[in-house]
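Batch manifest, entry 17 of 40.
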Amino acid sequence: MPTEWSDPTARRQSMENERGSLYRRMVELERRGMRFEREEGALREIEHNYRGLIESGIFLLLIVGIDGNILACNRCVERFWGVDPGGAGTASLWSLCPPGGTEELKELLLEASRKKVSARLALSLPDESRVWVEAELMPSVFRGIKAIQVIGVDVTEKVVRPPSGETEVWERVLDGCPGLLCCVLDGEGRLLYASRGYRAAAKRFLGHDCVVGAPYPPASNSVDRSLHDLLSSALLGGSGGMELVEVHAEGKRLWEVTASPLFSAQENVAGAVLRMAPPAAAPDGDSPSPSSGAGEAPKPTSAMELLNAVSDMLLLVDRAGACLAANGRFCEALGLDPALFVDKPLNELPLADDPLNDGFPDRLQEVLRAGEGALELRAETSRGEMLWLDLRARPVTWEGTDALLLTCTDATLLHRTQEQLKRVAVTDRTTGLLNREGMEQVLVKELERAARYRGSLSLLFMDVDDFRRFNEVRGYTASDGALKALVTALKNVLRPTDFLGRWGGDEFVILTPQQESAACQLADVVREMARNGPFDRENSISLSVGVAKFSKEMDVSSFVGAAYDAMVAAKKAGGDRTVLAGEPDQGSISIS
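Output type: structure tokens
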């Protein structure tokens, strides 16, 4: 027999070492299992919340893999691009890329896999037409794999082509109008501007392209010659109209076409405006008839009328920041009378009391000096509503004055959705508390503050004793009710400076700026409350609590690990007790 087994002490020591090793392995396996359960529950919760958000039609939401494959998208994306992530084959973001844009998008996705970025994406629709999307991309996780979350809005109608030569105000203004079918000519009959809708209509049933800078129309057929005569009359100061019939697969469509002169600030003819619109519907199902005033000469178009024809909110300011004009859409959205702020500084708009507006005058001055740029502000309407406005400034000439055109986009719904996504990511759905991710963010900030100012900080890690058996006996509905009641009771005994969060399952944490002795007293109060507070005897629960004191050499992992190990020690000792990390013999024990 070996010598070590002839010595009872050595044999006993060897068995103790083996038991200790097995115990440590068991604790590690138990810890891993609990971590996996927490991660699985968190993933299920995130997936549940995204499913609710995917039903929204307010914004474009995509979850894409690092390789560009689309993992999930909301109904807005499905309608916009006809993407079906669950269909045959793999939907890919590359299929939405226009020629030559793949490499740029790959670099953007690589950057977004590391940090949040904002960008304007140039993408293609199934009919190969180009669209632009203002998007925010950020790292995410989807069903256990790394992914990128993309939230965006369609800003195609707000993208302005780079000007060639001197920029006319009409091109700047009309580019933001999604529903207007029109084109603008200069005094020589050359095309200055054609809206996106008009370009599509001209290509579809007039059969010609709209080439900026070229004489318009090309006069290649009878319809073009009729348009040419109509526009020539408008360039001479006259006005007129005609009807066009579009023949398509489902029948015929009637369009009313009107042309009118475009006057400059000196009331000289500076060009012509051609507009197309469907005729007004006749009552009682009769055939369409020309709109009211048909047969009368259309009135000349003024600059203010063009502003009001645009569906976006528009403001014009001079280089000193004074408001020169505002279109009807802007005044309607804010419920304002233009007389209250036109010819007054932009700063006199009804800005909301919001941190976003801090420093707005300085940011406005920077944009005015640069002649272009972007701004954000929160405005209060006359109805008491708060609007989140994104402003983009472009240089224009307005009635002979060097000015800036501010295109205002109501981004309230987008920002509210982004805030909702952020709250969802750090909120436990059952209890409404901060979840593990949210508590980790709090821990990072509070540990940095405590290390910097040498403040006291203690962490209570709590676990409900025999909660699995409670689930089996009472059911999951009763279990959720018990946890909600526990959270309500906990909030009643905590101070405003304490942070309460659900770490996962039946585990809760409390971060308190107290010494360890006061933290242990708080733990005993919490355990007493759990036993005798909101529950009857049949549904009574008890807590095992581990308490850890923060020291400057600790990071988040070691701090939480110390409190967790103390909680495990409390459970191994029978539960319903408090154990202080590093001093298990001094842990307070309460017997129910």
